[in-house]
Amino acid sequence: MKLCCTTMADSDINEMRIASRPSDLIGNTPLIDLNTILIEEGVDVSNGVRLVGKLESLGPCSSVKDRLGKSMIDEAEKKGLITPGKSVLVEPTSGNTGIALAFLARERGYRCILTMPETMSVERRMMLLALGAEVVLTPKEKAVVGALAKANEIIDGLDGNGYMLNQFENDANAKIHRETTGPEIWRDTCGKIDVLVSGVGTGGTITGSTQYIKGSEEFNCTKKKAIRTIAVEPQEQMLLTAAKGGEKKGPQGPHKIQGMGAGLIPKVIDLDLVDEVIAIHSTEASEMTNKLWMSGIPVGVSSGAIVAAACKYCGRAEAEGKMVVCIIPSFGERYFTHPMFAQVKEKAEAMYKQPLPEPFDNTEFGFPTPRG
Ligand code: PMP
User: Fold this and answer.
1) For the domain 65-163, what is the CATH code?
2) What CATH number matches the domain at 17-58+182-345, 3.40.50.1100, 3.40.30.10, 3.30.70.100, 3.30.200.20?
């Protein structure tokens, strides 16, 4: 069969675009116009406001953490801190960082052990096990700290071969966003970005991207555009708001927005680069996530929180004529155990087969023989 394309000239096809390894597929995620969401939310877009999402959900392992995993491993390899085939990557993480490390460990030839509280979903454990990582569960009462203590214990027992990359403190975190996420946003918006909206987990995405676009003498980034950087956090855990001098509102406690609101102010974040913090409740985040799915954009719950926050900004008078870019951190299928999918799950489980039209004749559908 001859493949034929009428619009592509031979000169366009003399460079093959084939990645040689999975990590080559990290980055260069696309931007998508989200103004239909603004309109649905009742925002008047006639003043020229434009909402754009950066789909980190389309990375090789479907989250913004793919960048981080690669960056931390690359830097550690460069510094001679880890050696393929010898070092064991040990990390306390239940989230997308664990998935990124698991897939990169396969690519590079590392043994990878991930510790996490026993409350993490079976799907999450399966994802990691299927990628060849080892998973160690820790008591739920001790939460993340328990997972950290276990990871340290495992490292102590590995005769000096265990290594923790530690996303919450690693310089390679903000660095990769300064070197890739920020420049991509600048390039793909032709420098037209006015506002960046990002959720905060470790703070790497928001810090690195802003450093590049706002400009940072320390890191020799020279764009220096006066963008407004907005951080998003769960309303049930308003630590960043408080750190910026704002007031916490409503009851504080656990939230349901996986990936952000880690319950601490991470060392990686540079709060001076953050102009504003918008807090979004878990319920609001789920509602917006559902709207994104219903617009054909299946993403995780934190993406809903971030888009909800961006919509709030876009509804203000000051948003007139502005281009607002928000980071969409992860793909949606990973969150099917989240309560927001409970009804869908129930519906799927309660389904039964429908009778076929009778008499049923296979040959009508192009099959050569009648149904046996
Ligand atoms: N992963 C997910 C699923 C998130 O929701 C977020 C916050 N938007 C991040 C990662 C961002 O991470 P970080 O601050 O660690 O760069």
Assistant:
1) 3.40.50.1100
2) 3.40.50.1100
121 C-alpha to ligand 1 centroid (Å): 19
Q: Rounded to the nearest 10 degrees, how much is the dihedral formed by the CA atoms of 176, 180, 186, 188?
A: -150
pLDDT digits (tens, 9 = 90+) for 52-72: 999 999 999 999 999 999 999
In the chain, at which residue ranges do the beta strands (DSSP E only) sit?
31-33, 50-55, 88-92, 111-117, 134-138, 162-163, 195-199, 228-234, 276-280, 323-328
Q: Which residues of 173-192 are buried (b: 16+ CB within 10 A; e: fewer)?
A: bbbbbbbbbbbbbbebbeee
Q: Could you tell me the distance, in angstroms and rounded to a whole number, from the CA of residue 201 to the centre of ligand 1? A: 5
Which residues are designated catalytic? Answer: 65, 302
201 in contact with ligand 1, CB cutoff 6 A: yes
* pLDDT per position as a tens digit, 101-155: 999 999 999 999 999 988 888 888 999 999 999 999 999 888 888 999 999 999 9
SS3 270: coil
Query: Where in the sequence of the chain do the CATH 3.40.50.1100 domains occur?
Result: 17-58+182-345, 65-163
* Bridge partner list, 325: 52, 196
Cα separation of the two ends of the chain: 33
